[in-house]
Design goal:
The complex is a heterodimer. By secondary structure, chain A is α+β, with helices and mostly antiparallel strands. Helices cover 56% and strands 17% of the residues of chain A. The longest helix of chain A is centred in the C-terminal third of the chain and has 40 residues, at 266-305. The radius of gyration of chain A is 33 Å and the shape is elongated. By secondary structure, chain B is an alpha/beta fold. Chain B is globular. Chain B has helices at residues 48-55, 78-88, 104-113, 120-133, 149-161, 179-194, 235-241; strands at residues 4-17, 20-33, 37-42, 63-68, 71-72, 89-92, 167-171, 198-202, 214-219, 222-228. The model of chain B has no long low-confidence stretch (mean pLDDT 92). The chains are: A alpha+beta, B alpha/beta. The structure holds adenosine-5'-triphosphate and magnesium ion (MG). Residues 15, 17, 22, 24, 42, 44-50, 204 of chain B line the site of adenosine-5'-triphosphate.
């Protein structure tokens, strides 16, 4: 085989028809780039949400007062007060599957420090709370069981609070801030977690012993919720069953009574979110598939339109002695050069577009190697096939028929 | 006379159009020896092009035997026939059939591109020689669309010459050209003939027959006349006697 000459012939044919080569390439570039970008967007969103869920603690179990809510029925306030501190204590003592457990009561109010003030919501929690929510204390320390017993006037705050109450950059540890006139001593600062995918600031957080909120601020004797975490993710179901049993016993519910509390696990939440992101990914994959199809049709079109012209060229080449195989090799080289160049440009464009979306749109993207490979293969295959197929048909003709083709 | 280059035995070519069969050639037999300049004439539709395409291995006969240089073409594979076209045949088309957007020299080099035995240096040198022999030594880098019809036909002739073929086939090579240019081309063919090449020249123009050494006339796919011309006119002389172009 006369490779070097055929290679020269192919290069020459390509450079003589730059527009055709470019248009064919464009189909491939767009197809590949669209698939890569779309999949990167979808997967980025999904990964982001998954990270966040596991960041929140995938073993987490949330217990809320009140039974299973029936759509649109307003609940009696007493129904919302079924969880008591004693429930928490019994659960803490008896449930073997829990790594940590913390009550939760919340309130909102104005935080004041010197001239600065900032409206925030405050969580009254137990000592296990930071472990359950996978928070870390960056400076100072978390309050202790003693603080809880004494309903101590102490708090641990997030960096957003720090920035707003201490804009001068002074060290907040040991300083007093006021919440609705009550002085609280700052004993710890939490590590920053940034915004979550819903755009919520996870550093806008104030933790106070739950007893302090219950007694000193709100004067209530019930809990708004209990957060817990199973020892491992696999034990979540066991822990949930155990919690249900203990709480039913504690609340003296008869077998026929419905639960007067509600247990939610992080797993359920992540399943819901996963369904949503999967839908998003599917949608983007569909758009990408359509782009691929449109790109493919573009390639087909330009190749098909040039068949007449190229069939004559093939006839002419055969009339001066090109064999069928020479023609096929020439067209294959052309198609491969176009497709691979287009494919590579498409990959570059796709990765560039993904990066641009990440920097400009602040959208999480995760480029998937499989999408790069798949789209590259599909487009190059389409390009090579539609470059080769008309050539194969034309090369099978007698030269005179190819020359007369119209 | 030299050795036989072409021998046809009962060549038939039928075209099937719809459910009708067109008999373009109905049993053509003749042989052509080395160094002959044969004109093939006949009215439109008499089968001249069909015959020439078969001679050029561009088309396959429905029946009959065709020996080129003693080898039966009918029994050959497609690839062998391609090699035959590449090494033994030079074909000149009425409509030139040059590669578009391609320079004269590259067009002439084309047949040699498909011959792996020829180095690129030799290819170039032979293409230059062929272009010079048709008087286009100064137009080598011109593209197909930057030349006149006569020039394009010369490029096509140079391309037909470049592989040093056993036979040169020309189908109405002057059909698209004015009288003067036609005679210039004819001068070229006579020169090739004088160099000892075998030429088969299809034409409509009865005048041209007197510049060749033999004349075959076709009618309805049959050979009806086959005469040797002993009194060959010189195209060069005729060209000199032609009135000069107005703008010359
Ligand atoms: N590809 C084809 N399909 C069907 N019929 C054909 C084909 N090629 C030629 N013919 C028929 O064969 C006959 C001979 O055609 P050919 O082209 O050989 O004529 P010709 O002598 O070259 O005529 P002209 O002087 O007009 O070029 C014509 O009747 C033509 O219609
Ligand atoms: Mg004809």
């Amino acid at each position: 085989m006369n490779w070097s000459n055929l290679f020269k012939i192919s290069l020459k044919a390509l450079s003589n028809n730059k527009m055709r080569a470019f248009l064919t390439m464009l189909g491939i570039i767009i197809g590949v780039a669209a698939v890569i970008t779309m999949i990167a967007l979808g997967q980025g969103a999904k990964k982001n949400i998954q990270d966040e869920i596991s960041g929140m603690g995938s073993n987490m179990i949330m217990i809320h007062p009140g039974g299973e809510r029936r759509g649109g029925v307003r609940l009696d306030p007493s129904e919302m007060q079924t969880l008591k501190e004693s429930d928490y204590e019994v659960l803490r003592k008896e449930n073997l599957f829990l790594a940590g457990i913390s009550p939760n009561v919340s309130m909102s109010g104005q935080l004041v420090s010197g001239n600065s003030n900032y409206p925030s919501s405050v969580s009254g929690v137990g000592t296990d709370y930071i472990a359950i929510r996978q928070l870390n204390v960056a400076e100072g320390e978390m309050f202790t069981e003693t603080d809880i017993r004494k309903s101590a006037k102490v708090c641990v705050i997030g960096t957003t609070i720090v920035d707003n109450l201490f804009p001068d950059g002074s060290n907040p540890i040991g300083r007093i801030i006021r919440l609705n006139q009550v002085p609280l001593k700052v004993i710890g600062i939490l590590e920053s977690k940034g915004y979550n995918s819903m755009g919520m600031d996870q550093d806008d957080i104030v933790l106070v012993p739950y007893t302090t909120v219950m007694k000193r601020f709100r004067a209530i004797d019930y809990l708004e919720g209990i957060f817990a975490s199973a020892i491992t993710e696999d034990m979540t179901d066991l822990a949930t069953a155990d919690i249900e049993e203990i709480l039913r016993r504690q609340h003296k519910l008869k077998d026929s009574d419905p639960d007067d509390f509600m247990i939610r696990t992080q797993q359920e939440l992540s399943e819901i979110l996963n369904t949503t992101t999967n839908l998003l990914t599917t949608l983007l994959a569909c758009i990408a598939g359509i782009s691929l199809l449109v790109g493919g049709i573009g390639i087909m079109n330009i190749m098909y339109v040039s068949v007449t012209e190229r069939t004559r060229e093939i006839g002419l080449r055969m009339s001066v002695g090109a064999r069928g195989i020479d023609i096929l090799v020439q067209f294959l080289i052309e198609a491969i050069l176009i497709s691979i160049t287009g494919g590579i440009l498409g990959i570059l464009l796709g990765c560039g577009a993904s990066a641009a979306v990440r920097w400009l749109g602040n959208w999480p993207v995760a480029i998937q190697p499989w999408s790069v490979i798949l789209s590259f293969l599909v487009c190059t295959f389409t390009g090579v096939f539609f470059g080769w197929y008309p050539a194969k048909k034309a090369a099978a003709l007698d030269p005179i028929d190819a020359l007369r083709y119209e | 006379m030299g050795k036989t280059v072409i021998e046809l035995q009962g060549i038939r070519r039928d075209f099937i159009v719809g459910d009708e069969t067109v008999h373009a050639l109905r049993g053509v037999s003749f042989s052509i020896s080395e160094g002959e300049f044969v004109t093939i004439m006949g009215s439109s539709g008499s089968g001249k092009s069909t015959l020439l395409n078969i001679l050029g291995c561009l088309d396959t006969p429905t029946a009959g035997e065709y020996y080129l240089d003693g080898i039966s073409v009918r029994k050959m594979s497609k690839n062998k026939r391609a090699i035959l076209r590449n090494r033994k045949i030079g074909f000149v088309f009425q409509n030139y059939n040059l590669l578009a957007k391609t320079t004269a020299i590259e067009n002439v080099e084309l047949p040699l591109m498909y011959n792996a035995d020829i180095s690129s240096a030799e290819r170039r040198q032979r293409a230059i020689a062929a272009l010079q022999s048709v008087g286009l030594g100064d137009r080598m880098e011109h593209k197909s669309n930057q030349m006149s019809g006569g020039q394009m036909q010369r490029v096509a002739i140079a391309r037909a010459l470049v592989n040093n073929p056993a036979v040169i086939l020309a189908d109405e090579a002057t059909g698209n050209l004015d009288t003067r240019t036609s005679f210039e081309i004819l001068v070229l063919f006579q020169k090739l003939h004088a160099e000892g090449r075998t030429i088969i020249f299809v034409t409509h123009n009865p005048d041209i027959s007197s510049y060749s050494s033999r004349n075959i006339r076709l009618m309805d796919g049959h050979v009806i006349e086959d005469t040797v011309n002993t009194d060959i006119l010189s195209a060069e002389k005729t060209l000199a006697e032609l009135p000069a172009n107005e703008d010359d």
